[in-house]
Amino acid sequence: MSPLLQPIEQIASADILACTPDTPLNEAARRMAEQRRAAIVVLGDDGRALGIWTEADALRLDPGDTARLACPVSEWMSRSVLTLAADTSIHDATSLFRARGLRHALVERDGRYVGFVSLSDIVLNQGAESFLSVRRLDSLAVAPPLLLDGAVPVREALAVLRERRFDALVVCCADGGYGMFTLRDVLFLLAEPCAQEATLETLCSRPLLAVPGATSLLQARQLLAERQIRHLALRAPDGSICGVVGFADILAGIEQEFLLELHTALKERDAALLRSRQSLRLADKVFESTLEGILITDGDGTILSVNPAFTRITGYTADEAVGQTPALLKSGKQSPDFYRELWSTLKRDGQWQGEVVNRRKNGLLYTEHLSITAISDENDALGHYVAVFSDITRRKQAEERLHFLANHDALTGLPNRTLFLERLAEAIAAAQAGKERLALFFVDLDRFKLVNDTLGHAAGDELLARIGADLREAMPEGATVARLSGDEFTVLIPGIAGVEDAARHAQRVLEAVADETELAGEEVFVTASVGVSLYPDDGVAPETLLTHADTAMYRAKERGKNTFQFYTAELNVRAIERLKLEYALRRALAQDEFELWYQPKVSLATGAPVGAEALLRWRHPELGMVSPAQFIPIAEESALIGAIGEWVLATACRDTRRWVAEGLFAGRMAVNLSGRQLKLGGLVDTVRAALADSGLESDYLELEVTESVAMDDADGGQVGMLDELRALGVQLSIDDFGTGYSSLAYLKRLPVQVLKIDRSFIADLSHDKDDAAITTAIVSIAKSLGLAVVAEGVEEVAQRDFLAALGCDAAQGYLFGKPMPAAHFEAYLAAQRR
């Protein structure tokens, strides 16, 4: 279905900002400014709209007139509010917006308001990408911009905006740069009247986003959507600002382009009708969708006619294409068998559809989605074929990029753990079938933490990228090099002749890593420790081989580093030590050795605490503090995680209930759930009991599951359990989001409310384009699904500001507070309250 024919309800925001008629104007302005809304709906006691108050209405007010700002909004609202039926098409809604010059409308279904739609929503959902991509900004009739000096007081700027009826002005700053002052800033002045004495330069948004006139309307629309702004400045060739473009200008451009395309289509249709009355049925087919390429052939495959979209996509004009065959577009990327199957299906079923890689006139390849239909005449004799296709190159590239990011490490470009385990399983199956051996190398850099701590994370990332490239270069064809996490790499080599062959490759791994290199202006000598496991000697399962190679690597560390070790039976001594730790872990719960530490979670909008995360700690009487990374895996494997999880839930609920009762805590307390807890069963009863025993209201509790655990639901039972937990009133969130491979279709089924961005993306946010892009994508995905977003591991102000600008809701990390014992956290809460 064309985007313009879709019902308006599909693009409307279900979150309607509303207020009562007696709400003071300054309070209405504050709500609109905080939620970045252009309008607020005024509802009566019966829930029906009495009017609407917009940014344009706000401009009529003087921020210094405190008495008038205290007046009820009903005295200044616009009485007329456009209400659209939920099934109104986007096309019809667009027509109403254009005809009435509107910017907002309510959406109603069965006598109930179900959404709110704005001019921005209309422009972003026109589905006119092909038009927008060829139309340039300098083709629009844009009025000269309103420019004011940055030293002008804000109150004078307001008077100019009222007089000139502009919704934005450009601010000329003292340093030669530009800023933007819009109606949204007027809302801030009404909410904070004291700011009216400031100058434009102190309140405007900087730097001004300016683009050249050659920028397409599609690029402009994408910039407005990505930056969450409503105006772009138009930059002249000499660098000056020559105009300001908003959503309304783009909508006008779309309208003009649609009229031009419609005129062209109608002209060609009339010409076809004049050539032959018998081509009427074909004309209906040809002009069903003028945005898609269409070609018509006779029964022998000779092209009879093409539409303008065919020319735009392929580069061939009608004169060049008519008389040729579709082989004109062949790229050589499909085999002869592909075309034999295509024609076989077409002759049998009368139609075929699928994806084809073709070549444009300029030689560039493109991917198209193609539908071919055989057309019979009135005597049921095959007379023509109609091919309708659309260029899906960009979509395919985006899909491939997302698939790559889901299966590869963003820093090195190497396969990640998910893809490596898949390839390892495939290699084992191939080795088993061919009765071959393979070698698995587990590579861990020596003293990498020292590099990070002394030279910084940027230097550490540079080193990891170099080593990843060196390993890939040094390994033979057919080998797989992957980065599992941190400074851990793996290398898989199939077809190993024997132990001696594996040893030679292990030495090459050491030589590829061992080198003196310069990082951050310092000479650093890097070495690695390598563990080797062989198939089938050391195991036949992927996880077993990986575990044994990891064990052997630790033996190499113990042997002095910069060496390799094979896995041997004697390394099972480590397993004994593991058993000892497991025994101590069983004793720890009985002897009250566990502690809960708490890390605050704050709002990025206000900086105020909005909750916390409960983190498990083990204070061993002899070993001291034992890392959760060391004992949690043991707890999961030994089924102790169930008892430990119950203790964590009970303790977290009890502490939270006490702090709530004392007026210290607001928000939600987050508790992590392991995959084993979800699979053990009884989790819903455990949570219900913890809430009942502590007396804690369920809306104070948040349960976190990691992305990999959330996606691992082979039998579908996990979704049911999460639904039951959600029914209790607790909030559910996905932790470490972005580190695994999520199916967005499956994610939509999960009853979660929050996505937590993994700290690995946040750490390098300010200087890694990939991490910034992934973080931006995650926030965008979350917002599109109506989910809140929390960032983990925020340690720098730049990271906080970047996330806040994206619209990320909350964050936790050392910038706001480290994990702390319960007593210290209680003191922290008390200090925050003061």
From TrEMBL:
All copies of domain PAC, residue ranges: 352-404
Domain PAS: start-end pairs: 279-325
Limits of the GGDEF domain: 436-569
Q: Where is the EAL domain?
A: 578-833
Positions of the CBS domain: 12-68, 77-134
Matching entries from PROSITE patterns are given as: CBS, EAL, GGDEF, PAC, PAS
SMART domains recorded: CBS (SM00116), EAL (SM00052), GGDEF (SM00267), PAC (SM00086), PAS (SM00091)
Q: Which CDD domains match?
A: EAL, GGDEF, PAS
Pfam families reported for this sequence: CBS, EAL, GGDEF, PAS_9
Keyword Disulfide bond found: no
* Gene3D superfamilies xref list: 3.30.70.270, CBS-domain (3.10.580.10), EAL domain (3.20.20.450), PAS domain (3.30.450.20)
InterPro entries in UniProt: Biofilm_reg_signaling, CBS_dom, CBS_dom_sf, EAL_dom, EAL_sf, GGDEF_dom, Nucleotide_cyclase, PAC
Keyword field: CBS domain
Question: Domain of life, per the record?
Answer: Bacteria
Q: What is this protein called?
A: Diguanylate cyclase
UniProt source species? Crenobacter luteus
